[in-house]
Amino acid sequence: MDPETGLTHFDAAGQAIMVDVSGKQDTCRVATASGVIAVNRAVYDAIEQGTARKGDVLGVARIAGIMGIKATSATIPLCHPLPIAKCSIDFEMLPDECAVKAIATVKVTGKTGVEMEALHGVSVALLTIYDMCKAIDKRMEIRYIHLDRKSGGKSGDFVR
Prior knowledge:
Elements: E1 27-38, H1 41-49, H2 57-70, H3 72-75, E2 86-94, E3 99-110, H4 115-133, E4 141-151, E5 158-159
Antiparallel strand pairs: 1-3, 1-4, 2-3, 4-5
Helix pairs in contact: 2-4
């Protein structure tokens, strides 16, 4: 940890490091993150009715989000690989906003939290919706990706 800034991913010389968690206790840790993709009515209807040419948009996005959760340490440079105990990707159709909300929940028993895994899973799920629907409209917007809550670990519970 950099003693001047308190940032854990930098050493005293300012070099990026992977945090040493070897001395920490294993605890149950859970994180939930969410985000939204705003779409036009044609995209919304195709998702809701299952008529997109590429197939079951939310089914594929769910699998992609789960894969994203499991691959977080491969794409976020200083994340530890974690033995994910459980994860889920759920969706809410938001007709008044013409949008789809993705919610990722990740659980692990380990030495470090799963906030990044939940955020990464949401991001991958929403990007997959974009990819599967871009032939209908490319103006979709991914918005509001954030951590909703987390529990476990030294820093305790967080609720947005």
